[in-house]
Amino acid sequence: AIAKPGLITNLLPREYDIRVEKKGYTPWVKKLMVQPRQVTEARFVLLFTDRNKPQTPLRDALQGAARITPDGKDAIAVFVRGATTSIVSVNAQGAEKTLYAALRGKSQKRMPVFTLHDLSLSGRMVLAEENRGEKEKNLLVFDREKPENISSSLALSEPMQEILFFGNDTVLYLTQKHELRAWSLQTNTVTLVRKAVWGLSVQGTKAYVVAGTPPIAYAYSAGEFLERHEQLASAPLAAQPEASTIKVYALTHGRFALLSIPSKEREG
User: Fold this and answer.
1) Residues 179-217: tens digit of each pLDDT
2) Beta bridge partners of 260
């Protein structure tokens, strides 16, 4: 590459393939026509960092799958390092920031198990579940921009089917008893939204809920979901919801997909 504006002379009048490259950057490529007795300028030569270049792999053991932030710049992962389990934010250059670390106690037979559930719309808040045994399970919310470890925590008394952020300040979770509850991070309170809920999915500021007997699809809006919701379909979506596993998948443009698996087909 030419470090400063320069002039290449004695070129024959024709089309040339120009390529400017530097290690670690995406090459700049363009076709330029050289005319007789004229100066052809190559302007606005900009080299951007090559996002596809291989990075040095992280050699610590991962616990479960990582989550990618909405801006694509960081990954949130759970690492196991000796007797410590850590929830860590890692950027593309490999720089790490520990959000939370748990050390296995002498009386514990196994390492703490963390499950990453979701990221908030802004990507600032991280939702994880901590399992230290049969009687000790907690929901944890971390603020990636604050130095403190845990912003909020909630003890769980039973296993959950779905746990999702709803906007940036509310967590929706569906219990094994088919009860949909909302955990407000601002007031640290839990509210029962409705019973007989068979499926849940969130897309942006909309929550899609399949509830009732027979089950009907509803849409809830973030910030006002307790006061107002919209019925999306009048026809029942499943004949026997108790005998099925119903999964709801939020799509774009206000659409959703429904998967109903009868228990007899799920067995084995």
Assistant:
1) 999 999 888 899 998 899 988 988 878 888 888 888 888
2) 246
Q: Which residues pair with 251 in a beta bridge?
A: none
**Per-residue b or e along 122-155, where b marks 16 or more CB atoms closer than 10 Å to that residue's CB:** ebbbbbbbbebeeeebebbbbbbeeeeeebbebe
Q: Name residue 181's beta-bridge partners.
A: 173, 192
pLDDT > 90 fraction of the chain, expressed in percent and rounded: 12
Q: Which of 139, 144, 112 is nearest to 128 (CA)?
A: 139
Distance CA 77, CA 147 (A): 18
CA distance 12 to 94: 47
- In order, the DSSP letters of 174-233 are EETTS-EEEEETTTTEEEEEESSEEEEEEETTEEEEEETTTTEEEEEETTSTTT-EEE--
What is residue 149's predicted lDDT score, i.e. its pLDDT? Answer: 61
- Predicted TM-score (pTM) of this structure: 0.68
**CA 134 to chain CA centroid, nearest Å:** 27
Q: How far apart are CA 129 and CA 117, in angstroms?
A: 7
Residue 101 falls in which region: left (phi positive, over 0), alpha (psi -120 to 50) or beta = beta
Find the range with the poorest average confidence among 44-53, 134-143, 155-164: 44-53
Using CA atoms, how far apart are residues 166 and 21, in angstroms rounded to an integer? Answer: 45
Spatial distance between the Cα atoms of 88 and 128, rounded to a whole number of angstroms: 12
Name 47's Cβ contacts closer than 8 Å, sequence gap at least 6. Answer: 20, 21, 22, 25, 26, 27, 28
**pLDDT band (50, 70, 90) for residue 268:** very low
Spatial contact of 172 and 202, defined as CB atoms under 8 Å apart: yes
